[in-house]
Amino acid sequence: MQNTEQALLNSLNSFQDPYLKQSLLASKSIKSFEFHEGKAQIQLVLSYPCQGAIADITNQLTLHLEKISGVNEVQIQIGMEIPSFQTQQQGSIAGVKNIIAIASGKGGVGKSTTAVNLALALHQEGAKVGLLDADIYGPSQPMMLGEESTQPESEDGKHIEPIKKYGIQIMSIGFLVKPDQAVVWRGPMASGALQQMINDTRWRDLDYLIVDLPPGTGDIQLTLAQKVPVTGALIVTTPQDVALLDARKGIAMFEKVSIPVLGVVENMSMHICSQCGHEEAIFGTGGGEKLAKETGVSLVGQLPLDIKIRQQTDNGFPSVVQEPEGAIAQSYRELARKVGAQLNLLGAAKRHEAIKISMSDD
Asked: Pairing state of beta strands 168-172 and 163-165?
């Protein structure tokens, strides 16, 4: 019996979390472990959103443990607890555990589309999510979410209630001005508006606040870095050389302000013909991978160039909610799991309780 128990522990130690790339023991994911009369009972608590992967992880681990002699039955329970990670910037935003900035060196690479679909994918993977449209001069999230005419309310006259759509909480300057009204503000006014939206919005119990930044490395980005406890940043680019050039600048900016870059997302990696399904690399190949290697960050996602992505966001139904079981939505959900895991690897987590092992006297 003792040999079987030790073999189980050794097997658990050799099983790698598919997203953290660590053993379950190393990642401190095992909340409890019991073995009695041939039955192994294991409770895992994973620290990143992974609802869509739980069945696969359960099946893989079950097959892994059933190979051990003396094990007749394996019962596995997997839950999730998203911790709050430490940041360089002191302080916190009420109701928010982690803040992830979505940035790009230049416009036109699909950053806002990536931000909204990532926020929705994180929600579908089991996290509580908010989305802040920080593009003061060109807010696009109200249109992408079909809420252009919506105005937020204030119950106490001091705080703004976020708009709720598709299970996430949303705030944008686009909710506060008319759709055809231009925001003609100098940098300090725009930066002040950003801080007010972040601090005065009544965010409720968010695991992640996704911040859709404007393109470039200007006032808004600097304000966010200096005034807001950003947990990590994600850089969106296309494989095109000119986009990669500007993406490097974005990575360099976050490094200068000591905000960890969670990874690079290569958007529009491959064009998929809507008529025949033929795939073609219109903007080139290997750009995101090359950028990741040269800058020492991870390539966490490669997303397709598909006309449906544009059509769905233009109509207020992003791909993740329009076709939740479709290939495009699954790409975003895979990205969400990788981003959550990468945040876990780069941050200093509030770890789970130590492993509890119950041994039989038999």
From this structure: antiparallel
What DSSP element (H or E) covers 41?
Answer: strand 39-46
Q: What is the pLDDT of residue 357?
A: 47
SS (H, E, C) 61-91: HHHHHHCCCCCCEEEEEEEECCCCCCCCCCC
Q: What is the pTM of this model?
A: 0.91
Q: Give the distance from CA 154 to its chain's centroid.
A: 28
Specify the pLDDT at position 106.
83
CATH number for the domain whose boundaries are 2-82+349-359 = 3.30.300.130
Half-sphere exposure of 226 (CA within 13 A, CB side): 9
Cα 53 from Cα 18, distance rounded (Å):
9
User: Once rounded to an integer, what is the mean pLDDT over residues 320-336?
Assistant: 96
Cα(214)–Cα(221) distance, integer angstroms: 8
| Residue matched to tokens 């007010």 | 196
Statement: residue 37 has pLDDT above 90 = no
β-pairing, 30-36 with 39-46?
A: antiparallel
Taking each helix axis from N to C end, the angle separating 287-295 and 241-256, rounded to the nearest 10 degrees, works out to: 30
Yes or no: domain 96-346 corresponds to CATH 1.10.1790.10 = no
DSSP state of 160: B
Distances from the Cα of 338 to the Cα of 290, 331, 333, 342, angstroms: 19, 11, 9, 6
CA angle 95, 98, 102 (to 5 degrees): 120
pLDDT band at 282 (very low <50, low <70, confident <90, very high): confident
DSSP one-letter code for 51: G
Domains of the chain by residue range: 2-82+349-359, 96-346
Task: Give the CA radius of gyration of the chain.
Answer: 22
Query: How many angstroms separate the first and last alpha carbons of the chain?
Result: 7
